[in-house]
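Retro notes, structure queue

What went well: the backlog is down to a handful. What didn't: a couple of records were mislabeled last round, so from now on we paste the full input next to the output in the thread. Example, using TetR family transcriptional regulator from Stagnimonas aquatica:
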Amino acid sequence: MRLRKKTEESGADATGGGLRDERKLRTRRALMDAALELIQGERSFSSISLREVAKVAGVVPAAFYRHFSGMEDLGLALVDDSFRTLHTMMREARSAPLPPSNLIANSVATFLKYSQDHRPHFEFIAKERYSGSSAVRLAIRREIRLWTSELAADLAPFPKLKSFNGDDLRMMAGLVVNTVIAATELILDVDTKDTAEVARIHRNAEKQIMLIFLGAAAWKSQA
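Corresponding output:
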């Protein structure tokens, strides 16, 4: 009986711990969502305060520190949150068994749809990419470099790119990534209801990437 009671108590503790963990995750998510909400419009992440974030999230300022060491730590978490799922989705889009032209269209459509579905995250990225905390800027650059490196590795098997050296593959991947990022920033400035303009930006991005591939076919890597 004593053993059973101890086991039951352990189970209750485990359940309680699970509920606490769930509440902690909900509060952490609420703080991140509050920050994204506050930077809508003209405000930047560096212009909002810890107290504002806590108030919108519905917690006392002291509770903020149970989840983040400060606003910079919150910013880094938002960068990670913005790119984590994207990396997986883009790898899946690029690995689809499609002709190169269809693969490009599929990859562009995947990224631009993801950025539209997660608009607050990408407004945050667009605003903080060149301003605000240096730690956040560097984190964004690291994520973009990772994305570029992954794309370069995926481009290597393309028949017309097999003669490219590593530096040239990364350069080409960088051109593609910068084109997609530029298209995303244009879309963020467009009313979500203006589907014709969004479609035009999609088409232009696809054409620009096709031109990059056409130019790459004539490129000769130097030894």
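Agreed that this is the format going forward. Reviewer comment attached to the example: The two ends are 77 Å apart (CA to CA).
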